[in-house]
Amino acid sequence: MATFDTDLIIAGGGLAGATLALAVARAVPSLRVTVVEAFPLSPDALPESYQPSYDARSTALAWGSRLIFEELGLWQRLAEHATPIKHIHVSDRGHFGATRLHAVDHGQEALGYVADNRWMGLCLMRELLDTGVQWRAPAEVTDMIPMPGGVRVRLSEGDDTREMSARCLVVADGGRSGLREKLGFQPDRHSYGQNALIANVSTSDSHDFTAFERFTEAGPMALLPHGSPARAGHQSALVWTLSDDALGQVLELSDEEKCRWLQKRFGWRLGRFTRIGTCHHYPLTLTTVSEPVRPGVALVGNAAHALHPVAGQGFNLALRGLMTLVEQFRLAEENGLGIGDLEVLGRYQSLHRQDWQQTVRFSDSLIRLFGQPMAPVVAARDAGLVGLDLLPGAKRWFARKAMGLGGRRAVIDRPGNHPQETIGHE
Predict the structure, then answer these.
(1) Which residues form the FAD-binding domain (predicted)?
(2) Could you report how far apart the first and last alpha carbons of the chain are, in Å?
(3) Are 304 and 321 within 8 A, CB to CB?
(4) Residue 355, H or E segment
(5) Residue 134 in 3-state DSSP?
(6) Where are the alpha helices (DSSP H) in 194-254?
């Protein structure tokens, strides 16, 4: 029987990779895990030293993601700087259609949360310090060769190159590193011809823990409550969809002019826009890999599927997929199977496929529906928004989608726990 340097190599130590490492450490502590991360790690970067920044990038966490982080023992710390979304307001600019969701109507304290990416990373790192997970940073996975029962991975560490063997490689470094293509996976890409502009903004009126999804003729615009988790404030996280031409125009504007342009398109539901922070932007592309596994290798997160941010489901979908993969690792260990066996990874793909296909269809259909300017389509979608607001069944379905409760979610079975089900519907 072949011997391996480690059991699992995770290429990428960002939010997806670090969460996967922690979940494996919690659920399958017998597995040796090595995370390979391109950026150096600072031993001083811990939650205790965290100071929120106005320009911090953030992620929308669905209620279902909170449940996963609770299972990982991470939520209590994360919640210290996670702003709750208690209300969601969806509207179509210039038309009467609108729908509103309220957490209290669904027996929840929140529909979701908004957390700074850096804060989430620090919380994950704090928890990982108490596990046996090994880190190689700064380092990158540059190639992989199949071997009996596993893979041999080539690592680049500065000017040095070395190899490590493992039973399985998980690619969790996003869709831009090039590793996915280097390993022979072919993604399907559909460009939306749009860009996402990301920034934090301040308004004269309090957000009252409300997330706004505003569909405009130029594309969707989202404002998510940001800042204190205990007191409704005036800061929101903006995701603004713009064409190439419009993006170029906006980036040339002064901050005051950006606020005026934003005001014209969003309206006055939050009063006057008083400040906009550092703007980041990236092109919007629907990217999927139809076969994200092969013997010894699995793609997860944005490496497997990158969505339009319209519904804020990207990381939440990835998180559900990670838990499904961890559950398959646990079952493989219990049944004497290799964690990189195609039978094991194929089971993960089969279970996760329906979730990501449904989520992709949901997000993509919103873009196509609200991107249609024809009068009959406008009338139909406005009627649909009103219907969502008036029909309890339809509204509950929409709320469950927004809360990330529509897909399969694996339950972490820690040693000593014996849940009645290990895979269940939320």
Answers:
(1) 5-361
(2) 40
(3) yes
(4) helix 342-370
(5) strand
(6) 244-252
CA 171 to chain centre: 15
Q: State the Cα–Cα distance between residues 252 and 267, nearest whole angstrom.
A: 22
Contact 95, 372 (CB under 8 A): no
Q: What pLDDT does residue 416 have?
A: 43
User: Do 211 and 269 meet the contact criterion of CB atoms below 8 Å apart?
Assistant: no
When computed from its CA atoms, the radius of gyration of the chain, rounded to whole angstroms, is 22
3-state secondary structure 257-296: HHHHHHHHHHCCCCCCEEEECCCEEEEEEEEECCCCEECC
Provide the whole-model pTM.
0.86
Residue 420 has pLDDT above 60, yes or no: no
Between CA 178 and CA 355 the distance in angstroms is 25
- Give the pLDDT confidence of 191-219 residue by residue, as tens digits: 878 898 999 999 999 999 999 988 777 67
- For the record, the structure tokens of 370 come out as 């609200």
- Classify residue 230 by burial, with Cβ atoms within 10 Å: 0-12, 13-18, 19+: exposed
What residues contact 252, with CB distance under 8 A and at least 6 apart? none
DSSP assignment string, 319-337: HHHHHHHHHHHHHHHHTT-
Per CATH, the number for 6-425 is 3.50.50.60
Q: E-strand spans in 183-267?
A: 188-203, 210-216, 219-226, 235-242
Cβ 286 vs Cβ 360: under 8 Å: yes
Residue 112, SS3 per DSSP? strand
State the DSSP H helix or E strand holding residue 383, giving kind and residue range, or none if neither: helix 375-390
CA 271-276-279 angle, to 5 degrees, is 140
Query: What are the extents of the domains in the chain?
Result: 6-425
201 in Cβ contact with 238 (< 8 Å): yes
Judge residue 318's burial from the number of C-beta atoms within 10 Å of its C-beta, 0-12 exposed, 13-18 middle, 19 or more buried: buried
Is residue 253 within 8 A of residue 223, CB to CB? The reply is: no
Residues sharing a CB contact under 8 Å with residue 183, sequence separation 6 or more, in sequence order: 143, 144, 171, 297
